[in-house]
Amino acid sequence: MTLNFLIAPDFAPERFAGWHMLNTTLQRRSGIHLHLLTPVSAHEQADLLAAGKADLVYANPFDATDMIRTQGYIPFARPAKRYDEMVIATGAESGLSTVEDLKAGCRIALTENKDVKLIGLRLLEPADLTEDAVRWVPVETYQAAARLAIKGEVEASFFLADAFASLTRMSRSQLRVLVESAISDISHVVLAHPRVVEALPRIEEALLAIGQVPGDSDVLEALGLPSGFEPMTQEEAEFMIDLMDTLLD
Amino acid sequence: MGLPDMALPSAPSREARLTYTDGTSRTVYATDVEVPFPEGRLIVSRTDLAGVITHANDAFVEMSGYAREELIGAPHHILRHPDMPRIAFKGLWDDVAAGKKWHGYVKNLRKDGAYYWVYATAVPNIRNGVIVGYTSVRRKPSRTRINELVPVYAQWLAGEKAAS
Question: Is residue A152 helix, strand or coil?
């Protein structure tokens, strides 16, 4: 039996090796052959999901909403002590110091990460900025978002907080954080398709135990998830989805 | 059993007697101290179908001024500020009980009599097609919108007092 394990495309490039290390470890301990799928874009991920190719998914919370509620995917784990937070930053020379300094018509760079945009839109509300009042500048990478803000070609950029923390020290020194979310309730989720429910206990046991064997810390460090994974119940996932629902408008 | 009367705050305050939708009432004290909404955070709570708090996140506990143990099991109207007219909550329970989302700008009362403004959203928790409770998430509101609403709420409140 081979199961496809799809990883949401929003991880930093330097984590790529970590996902392969995790996949190898999971295979060895569960006795189940796993084929890693690493789509490079949200579009490619959507194609793989639509084709029914994902048996296990490390999903971002925005996508998990539909997968759990509409497609019946089963949530069973999430990164431990690792929440999805976002940062709105401006160039250090911009003269802006709070979100309220951003005005209608301002330019904001953002990647295609929907979670970051959703949370970011809510953090712009105190500045009376709606989605229509911003001139959005789409970029491929967080590095590109940083460059535009540093060069003053946008007034602000949206970042996944982890990605912001991964920028070079030089880049961060040329940026100023206007606001950083501290929601602590929204995280990525590990899901299983209902058709693989029989294999799920072995996968779940292997995944949740990673961190308990010497050498596991190398895998978790490479993933950027030093605390490993923790169980997530259906109700915990539903609670997170309800919370995200309140942020949609 | 209703909530006990509030303790008199040390700061100068106004006294009011609030009667809630469940028929209970209590004396509250409101000061003019505003506590700013914490940057980047969300205030999250859940209630059962009767509006009794079953979950409060850390931001909720910190901003309310109550201990978590005081909040869990208490009715959500423990936060009701005497400056809030009833009509501002019009539709809240009707909407969520009908499976819909509700939004509103709300001035909340802290345990110490101070207040904080929020933009509140409430959604029903629907499990297997059945509403089992409600989630309320409060985020930092637009100050412009609050400044517009303060006189509106005051007018509505005056109207309600005149009618009662």
Answer: coil
Residue A126: closest C-alpha in chain B? B142
pLDDT mean over A173-195: 96
Q: Could you tell me which chain A residue has the CA closest to the CA of B46?
A: A239
| Structure confidence at residue A148 (pLDDT) | 98
Inter-chain contact A243–B44, Cβ cutoff 8 Å?
Answer: yes
Top CATH class, B14-163 = alpha beta
Mean pLDDT of B77-103: 91
Task: At A47, list the tokens.
Answer: 């194609």
- Does residue B74 or residue A43 have the better pLDDT? B74
Q: How far lies A130's CA from each of A245, B140, B150, in Å?
A: 18, 14, 22
Contact of B161 with chain A, judged by CB distance below 8 Å, is answered with no
Q: What is the distance in angstroms between the Cα of B44 and the nearest Cα belonging to chain A?
A: 8
Residues 90-109 of B with CB under 8 A from A: 101, 103
Domains and CATH numbers, chain A: 2-82+185-246 (3.40.190.10), 86-180 (3.40.190.10)
Looking at residue A115, its pLDDT comes to: 87
Instruction: Work out whether the CA dihedral A93, A98, A101, A102 comes out positive or negative.
Output: positive
